[in-house]
Amino acid sequence: MKAKRVVSAKSSRFSAQLFNICSVAAITAGISALLLGKLLASQKIGFLPFVLSFPPLMIWLAASIFVYASIAHHPNERTRHFHRWAGYRFYGATGAMVVVGQPIYELLGGWNGLMGVWALVFVVVVPWGLYDIWKAARENWQDIILETAVDRLPPVEETREH
After folding, report:
1. Rounded Cα distance, 5 and 51, in Å
2. In 10 A of CB 16, how many CB atoms?
3. Phi, psi dihedral angles at 141 (to 5 degrees)
4. Residue 47 pLDDT grade (very low, low, confident, very high; cuts 50, 70, 90)
5. Which pLDDT score is estimated for 48?
6. d(CA 35, CA 123)
């Protein structure tokens, strides 16, 4: 017996945009927290901007693994394409942040170095992410009908032991 399941065009489009939306939000929230921390920080608590800027990024980094895994095998090839490139950008930028972040921080020094590292991540993720969100919205999405085999198992007979 076969069962039919419909994956709507709206669902495919949203799945294609989801990783980009969350990545842009996490990077923007991190930079906003960095700027807010800089405004609130005094000389005695100079680490505050650093401490405030990373939680949104770290939370999305952890959650993104589940989002990426859930959409990686989507039945729509275009959804997987948008999703794959969003992952490449985000994971590449955050990986580069780990590798080249310290040299940039030391080269520019303190506050400027921290802003330089965040600017690098922002430039890689946000403009391309917004462009992909826009591009996915303009794409012609179609409903997909999936047929799956449904095996019905015979009823299990209960046995009574005395």
Report:
1. 46
2. 26
3. -90, 145
4. low
5. 67
6. 17
Domain ranges of the chain: 2-140
73-130 per-position pLDDT tens digit: 889 999 999 999 999 999 999 998 888 888 887 888 777 777 888 888 999 999 999 9
**pTM of this prediction exceeds 0.85:** no
CB-based burial of residue 78 (10 Å sphere; 0-12 exposed, 13-18 middle, 19+ buried)? middle
List beta partners, residue 4: 147
**pLDDT tens sequence across 142-158:** 988 888 776 665 665 66
Q: Which amino acid is at 21?
A: I
3-state secondary structure the chain: CEEEEEECHHHHHHHHHHHHHHHHHHHHHHHHHHHHHHHHCCCCCCCHHHHHHHHHHHHHHHHHHHHHHHHCCCCCHHHHHHHHHHHHHHHHHHHHHHHHHHHHHHHHCHHHHHHHHHHHHHHHHHHHHHHHHHHHHHCCCCCEEEEEECCCCCCCCCCCCC
